[in-house]
Amino acid sequence: MKTRIYSVLVENRSGVLCKVAGLFSRRCFNIDSLAVGETDDPATSRMTIVSSGDERTIEQIEKQLNKKLDVIKVNTYAERQCIAREMMLIKIKYNKNNRREIMELCEIMKVDIVDMSRHYMMLQICDTPERVKLLIDMLHTVSIVEVARTGTVALAKCCENDEG
């Protein structure tokens, strides 16, 4: 199984997200992550879709996306071809025994403590999807109360001979 990141530039109108999600659903392709946002041009949005499958599935996803009328451009990236980031807020319950350990972990992983009360902390991380998952794994020794993740956003790496 290979993982691919599809960066899909679409027309910014209602129903486009539903059409793209329907394409995946009808063909039984799984969406591992989906993030959508307006670009610098209010008429267009960028969908970043992470999906996995064999070589045939990956080719089919790209072909089917390109057939959609609302789709302007599709770029498909292997993980090494792009810069990918994900943002997560995670609320944890802490006590005096593990507070210092959590704060040290935050310092090591460059995680911000964005809210805090007597028994709860809310942490924020913006990093690669792998490091976001690593943080979750490392916090399983404490009580995770709630998690909100954005999904992956990605752009192609900059190349010296690129013009755009």
Biggest sheet, open or closed, and with what strands and sense? 5 strands, antiparallel
- Name of the CATH class of the largest domain: Alpha Beta
General shape: elongated
Are there runs of 5+ residues with pLDDT below 50, and where? none
* DSSP summary: helix tally: 4
Task: Please provide a written account of the structure.
The protein is α+β, with helices and mostly antiparallel strands and 164 residues long. It folds into two domains: 2-77, 2-Layer Sandwich (Alpha-Beta Plaits); 83-154, ACT-like. Chain A, domain 2 (Alpha-Beta Plaits, 2-Layer Sandwich). It is built from four helices and nine strands, in the order βαββαββαββαββ. It has helices spanning 16-26, 55-67, 99-109, 129-138; strands spanning 2-11, 33-38, 44-53, 71-77, 82-93, 112-116, 120-127, 143-149, 153-156. The strands form two sheets. Strands 5, 6, 7, 8 and 9 form a five-stranded antiparallel beta sheet that branches. A four-stranded antiparallel beta sheet has the order 2-3-1-4, covered by helices on one side. The model has no long low-confidence stretch (mean pLDDT 93).
Topology of helices and strands:
Blueprint: E1 2-11, H1 16-26, E2 33-38, E3 44-53, H2 55-67, E4 71-77, E5 82-93, H3 99-109, E6 112-116, E7 120-127, H4 129-138, E8 143-149, E9 153-156
Characterize this entry briefly:
With 164 residues, this protein is of the alpha+beta class. The protein contains 4 helices and 9 strands. A hairpin with a 5-residue loop joins strand 2 and strand 3.
